Amino acid sequence: MVRVVNLDDGGVFCFVMGSFKYTVALLIIVYLPLASSGQELNGFDLSKASIPVSQILSGGPPKDGIPAIDVPKFSPANKVHFLKEDDKVFGISFGNDRRAYPLRILVFHEIVNDVAGGQAVAITYCPLCGTAMAFDRKFGEETLSFGVSGLLYQSDVLMYDRQTGSLWSQLAMHSVSGKKVGAKLRWLPGELMTWKAWREKYPDSSVLTTETGYRRDYRNTPYQGYEQRPDTMFPVPEKRTELGNKEWVAGVIVNSQAVAFDLKKLADVPDHKITLKVGDTLLGATYNPVTREVRVTDQSGKALPVVQVFWFAWQGFYPRTILWNG
Fold it and tell me: Alpha-carbon distance 150 to 171, whole Å?
């Protein structure tokens, strides 16, 4: 069923209701602005974009239609009661300041601008790619604040900074248009695991609450059944076919080389632990299939930033990735 609503700006909202095999229904909202020259979309100047403008697509809502959280409120972990044991949370640790961001909240906001342990951070989440990632918001003397552009590149969220209006790709980890084009994001370590695992590991941590300032049904998700369906909502180049689109991998970047670990295969090896030599670096990867926690370290034991991501998204951005799959 499709319902089209005309907007004052000359665009339209298309509401598409479709049934999935593993759920009752999914509501997809597709926003189709009528750009005049192809050099502007959702109000962003794409004239100097470093990626093909034809591959920058509207994901649905307009700019800030998905509102970032700029004044996050937290509660002690032992006073949080709205989460289920197997809910997934993304957490960061800076010194003794440990914070968890439930995915059931991030799915409605995609970005949290925060300061943890004196570190200005952007907590980002793309439900289409399954990617929760933390980035440094400091660029020299400047601290950027990020919002959701409403645009996608290869099915991944394009963020924008409010200081210059530049677009930033989450998975590519750099700016793709505007005054900051080419600037790189500094990827920060984070941990994704179940709420039960986080609470037991960090009982003195803080947790993002549902007091976001917005009315959302945080008990549910608009992407129910998406993970079980093999196809993607938006086109992504298929350059590697070793795994199914929605197979989970753990992605890391080592000396500019992308590496992916097949989590299903990693769960099957003894102790769920393997080593892999990448160039001169020996990596150790562990995965707990119960807690959903992944850890990748170098030979010194230092934990590397790692993202749990659908295979279609990782191979789309990093087609030359090394894939460990048993």
Answer: 16
